[in-house]
Amino acid sequence: MSRPVPRPPAVYRRVVSTKTMSLIGNQNYLPPYESPLEESFALTLDKYLADEVRIAKQVEVQTLCGGYRLDFVASCEGHPSVAFECDGEDYHDQDRDEWRDALILDATNLQAIYRFQGSALFYHMEDCLYVLARWERHLFSDRGRTILAQLATKSASRAADRISFSGALLYYQDDDASSGLYVARIERHVIEAPPGCRSFLKSILEYAKRSGLTDLDEIRAQHLQQFLKG
Questions:
Q1: What is the pLDDT of residues 106-115, one digit of tens each?
Q2: How do the domains of the chain map onto residue ranges?
């Protein structure tokens, strides 16, 4: 879950703090966590990670529009760091999250920020990790990837075969088909898009920098007004 913080005491810039990472040691499951969802995610993820991967929790970031906090940051020597956000429904605002993540990616060395719906993690944790492993293979051990592949549902297998640079959709249908189709979304926020693709995050980041404003909600409101004016 992501919430702005006014003035974080520690600033996360350009490189992952080695001091923060050293606190994790060889154990990536390190309670307490801010929510049961985050604890469940950390505990499950840790079972499948490669030994050299380190996970930092509640990493504070200073951006153009102030301080924010990331649920988790994963680092592995020789690879770009990535972040994970566990989005509970009470805190999730997709539009605002895109702006926020664009600012964070610009202020750090993170390659991507992954956002998992709370319901997707609660009901389909291993499926989410299986799809994640398609993007970030190096984070997972050989044994971990093998087990996730064995546990993956058909929905996860189909989603993993159709991942894009911006995310993946997992479609689930109850056995009795009485409750309709359920769609679980994994968002992958990055600044740079592959050739031939347009990066929305890059465009809003450039707008935020041109605006001269430092309040995210004011920037978004101004951007919306200009969009409506055409």
A1: 999 999 999 9
A2: 18-229
